[in-house]
């Protein structure tokens, strides 16, 4: 899988998330998407995933 395919897959995942969160959470998801995509560009997908999966600054989203 090349870089463009990985980026496309990430965008699809975030698009699905954005379509299924409450309206009041849309801004939070958009901010997380921007931060994650910046890390992907700077670090590469694998290292960005490692960074985000080990993050101590977890954001908890509760949906009903």
Summarize the entry for a quick read.
The protein has 64 residues and is an all-alpha fold.
Explain what you see:
This protein is mostly helical and 64 residues long. It has one domain. The chain has three helices and no strands. The protein has helices spanning 3-20, 26-43, 45-53. α1 (3-20) packs antiparallel against α2 (26-43) and α2 crosses α3. It starts with a helix and ends in an 11-residue tail after the last helix. The model has no long low-confidence stretch (mean pLDDT 86).
The CA-CA distance between the termini, in Å, is 35 Å
Given the C-alpha coordinates, what overall shape results?
A: globular
Uncertain ranges = none
What is the average of the pLDDT values? 86
Oligomer: single chain
Q: How many distinct helices?
A: 3
The structural class is: mainly alpha
Radius of gyration: 12 Å
Order of helices and strands: HHH
Total count of strands = 0
Strand portion, in percent?
Answer: under 5%
Largest sheet composition: none
- Overall tally of domains: 1
* Helix-residue proportion: over 70%
């Amino acid at each position: 899988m090349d870089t463009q395919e990985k980026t496309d897959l990430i965008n699809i995942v975030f698009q699905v998330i954005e379509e299924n969160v409450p309206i009041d959470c849309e801004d939070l998801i958009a901010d997380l998407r921007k931060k994650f995509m910046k890390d992907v560009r700077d670090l590469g997908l694998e290292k960005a995933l490692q960074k985000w999966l080990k993050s101590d600054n977890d954001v908890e989203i509760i949906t009903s």
